[in-house]
Structures are given as C-alpha cells and as structure tokens.
C-alpha cells in the first residue's frame, strides 16, 4: 500500500519532446508544492551525478530482488540497464505533503495504472516527428544508429499518447510558453478539485 497523500503527477513523452524543460520549470516555480521521485538505475553514474539526488544507483541483482519483493511501482530496461520507481521514493515525497512527480515512459504508465496511486497522467507531444528529429540532432549527442532507435521509440510513444483514455491530457509542445501554461492550468484545476473534495471529506468526518 502506497502512503496516502496528494495525487501524484506523471509526465510522459518522447526524448526531445521538451518534457524535462517543462518539469524543471514546474519544480523551480513551485518548489514547495512539487517533489520529484528519484528513480533507481543499474547504470553507472555520469560525471556530476550524485547518488540519491539524480538517481538511486544500484546493482542489477539488488534491483531484481527488490522488484520480486514488490517494492517497485514500475520498472523497465533500456540498453541493458534497468530503471524504475520504488514505492519508497514516492512515499518519501508524499509524506512531505508535496505532489510527487514521476517522469516515466509508456511502459511505466501502463504499470502505474495497475497500482492504487491514481495519478494525473500527462503526455507531452512534440509537434511532429520531423521537429523531434531536428531537436535530437541539435543536441549532437546521438549517433545515427541511436538516433534512429530514439525516433522509432518516439513514433510508438506518440501513437500511445494519441490513443483515447491513455492520458488525462495531451499537451502539444510546439511553443514552450504555451505548453507550460497548459500544464500549469491542468494541474491547478485538478489539484483545486482534489483539495475541495478532501476538505469536504474532512468536514463530513467531523459532522459524523
């Protein structure tokens, strides 16, 4: 059972969709309202990455054992490395009263839907696959082979994002200011509704 607290927020979208930019802005503007769940990974730390801040770095055997014990909400494997969100990582944020933000892929979204988290599900959609390719090429971090793989994955993700009922909202990121405004408005509407329902529940409990 996951610790009760504010309804978590899931952000999903292809690499290059601008999801990380929107997430950073959200956490910077509302540091007291949102907290980021720190994922686990079996890959080695990159320069500047710190354990417990950027990721919880672990071994494949330890992570497999923890998944088998039911300690993870979602997990996936990329390029031979495992990634996942533990129940404890989400609990740690929710205990502070903050909205826990999860940055996960479509496989993670499918798994989260089978938990009792009941998160707000947001998909960040790039304007087109051509624009996504341009953004990824501008990074100069990909070989042709890895770029093709990312684009193939992105096409599958965009198809999943466009299917009805997979997400509560799909935000087109062809303009970062507009996309961020849409994200803020969606969160505000849903968190206000949740706060009102919570207040109503507290009132009813007192009256009873």
UniProtKB/TrEMBL annotation:
Molecular function, one GO term: ATP binding
Domain of life: Eukaryota
UniProt-listed Enzyme Commission number(s): 2.7.4.8
Region ranges (Disordered): 186-208
SUPFAM superfamilies per record: P-loop containing nucleoside triphosphate hydrolases (SSF52540)
Pfam family, one: Guanylate_kin
InterPro entries from the UniProt entry: GK/Ca_channel_bsu, Guanylate_kin-like_dom, Guanylate_kinase, Guanylate_kinase_CS, P-loop_NTPase
A cellular component annotation (GO) from this entry: cytosol
KW Membrane (keyword) present: no
Keywords noted in UniProt: ATP-binding, Kinase, Nucleotide-binding, Transferase
Domain Guanylate kinase-like span(s) in chain numbering: 6-188
Family statement drawn from the similarity comment of this UniProt entry: Belongs to the guanylate kinase family.
Name by which UniProt lists this protein: guanylate kinase
């Amino acid at each position: 059972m996951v610790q009760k607290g504010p309804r978590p927020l899931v952000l999903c979208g292809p690499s290059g969709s601008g999801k990380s930019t929107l997430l950073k802005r959200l956490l910077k503007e509302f540091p007291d309202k949102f907290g980021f769940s720190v994922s686990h990974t079996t890959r080695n730390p990159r320069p500047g990455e710190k354990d417990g801040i950027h990721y919880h770095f672990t071994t494949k055997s330890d992570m497999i054992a923890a998944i088998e014990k039911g300690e993870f909400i979602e997990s996936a494997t990329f390029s031979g490395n495992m990634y996942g969100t533990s129940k404890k990582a989400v609990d740690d944020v929710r205990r502070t009263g903050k909205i826990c933000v999860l940055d996960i892929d479509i496989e993670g979204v499918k798994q989260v839907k089978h938990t009792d988290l009941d998160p707000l599900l947001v998909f960040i959609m790039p304007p087109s696959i051509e624009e996504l390719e341009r953004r990824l090429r501008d990074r100069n971090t990909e070989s042709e082979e890895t770029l093709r793989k990312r684009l193939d994955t992105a096409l599958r993700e965009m198809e999943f994002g466009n299917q009805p009922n997979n997400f509560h909202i799909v935000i087109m990121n062809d303009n970062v200011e507009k996309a961020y405004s849409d994200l803020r408005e969606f969160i505000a509407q849903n968190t206000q509704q949740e706060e009102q329902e919570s207040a109503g529940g507290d009132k009813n409990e007192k009256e009873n």
